[in-house]
Write a structure and sequence with these properties.
about 325 residues, mainly beta, Jelly Rolls, nine-stranded antiparallel sheet, six-stranded antiparallel sheet
């Protein structure tokens, strides 16, 4: 039986709004000076992560999902459900919105829509997000878009390091300049741009917008998501459940010592935000981890121990 964490090699994405902080903050070997995204745990066809340890070394996560479903609590479904990223927004991201599952399947042929959430790793003083809008009806939304009344339409929210933002499908949103986040999302790459600050691509052309589809899928009027973080654990491992919803459950863990037994509820997706330490599986094999590592604890591991000083974002599908 498989008794070790599955460490993954990230996939990097060049973005017009990206920068170099993924290298500066996490030591990643990024491919360009405008690298915006690190896909740390991904089985999506646009960038599957590769296993870098153990018997599955060299396999991509989509291949492991297809051939070794016992590692994922025998969860049903053709596609691995989640995707974990770190984003470096040197400049503002486009204002965008994502569809639900039904719309994504029917219109785009994607397995999933996109509900996501963000943990703010770091941001510059005064950083903001776009989260929602001020239109009261679809007609008013359409009029404000047509008249380029973006300052009136878009709702901006101040942020600081450690903030958490839940972004259900249909939410108008944008990550602001000077922000680094960890994003946990459904495994989807469907994005509709509403507004892009009149930016142009490398060829000098205006970037494509998707106004009609955005209006079709947007939540109008906007309603803030209702969720309440839950604290548990002890001084050695403080666990904060950030959100539990239909697609995923996400936690922030703060390890400051030694914990002899942690239960694995299904299979866990783990990203190390800071620090280092050691993980021991059921009193047997040991694995070290450090800042910037991404790994999965498969469902064949029923419990594990940890020691060290580190912070993590941990998630699992809500099954």
């Amino acid at each position: 039986m498989y008794k070790e964490p599955i460490f993954l090699k990230p996939v990097f994405k060049d973005r017009i709004w990206g920068g170099t902080k993924l290298r500066e903050e996490f030591g990643y070997d990024i491919p360009t000076e405008t690298t915006g995204e690190c896909w740390g745990i991904s089985a999506h066809s646009h960038g599957p992560s590769e296993v870098i340890n153990g018997p599955l070394k060299g396999k991509t996560l989509d291949q492991v999902w297809d051939k070794h479903r016992e590692l994922f609590a025998d969860q049903e479904g053709e596609d691995f459900p989640l995707l974990v990223k770190i984003l470096d927004a040197k400049t503002d991201l486009s204002v965008q919105v994502h569809p639900d599952d039904s719309y994504a399947r029917e219109v785009e042929g994607e397995a999933f829509g996109k509900t996501e959430c963000w943990y703010v790793i770091n941001c510059e003083p005064g950083a903001e997000l776009v989260y929602g809008h001020h239109a009261n009806s679809k007609l008013q939304f359409e009029q404000m878009v047509a008249e380029n009344r973006w300052d009136e339409l878009l709702r901006k929210v101040s942020i600081k390091p450690g903030d958490f933002v839940y972004v259900p499908n249909g939410t108008i949103h944008a990550i602001g300049a000077g922000t680094m986040i960890l994003e946990t999302q459904q495994s989807s790459d469907v994005t509709y741009r509403v507004y892009d600050y009149d930016r142009r691509d490398d060829a000098g052309n205006p970037r494509e917008l998707h106004i009609e589809k955005s209006i079709e899928v947007a939540m109008i009027p906007h309603v803030d998501a209702d969720f309440e973080p839950v604290l548990s654990g002890n001084e050695d491992l403080r666990m904060k459940k950030l959100v539990r919803e239909n697609y995923f459950t996400v936690y922030h863990w703060n390890l400051a010592g030694s914990v002899s037994k942690i239960e694995n509820p299904a299979y866990l997706l783990v990203s190390v935000l800071d620090g280092e330490g050691e993980l021991k599986v059921e009193g047997e094999t040991s694995s070290s981890f450090k800042k910037g590592d991404h790994f999965i604890l498969p469902s064949t591991i029923k419990n594990f121990a940890m020691n060290g000083n580190a912070r993590f974002i941990v998630s699992h599908p809500t099954i």
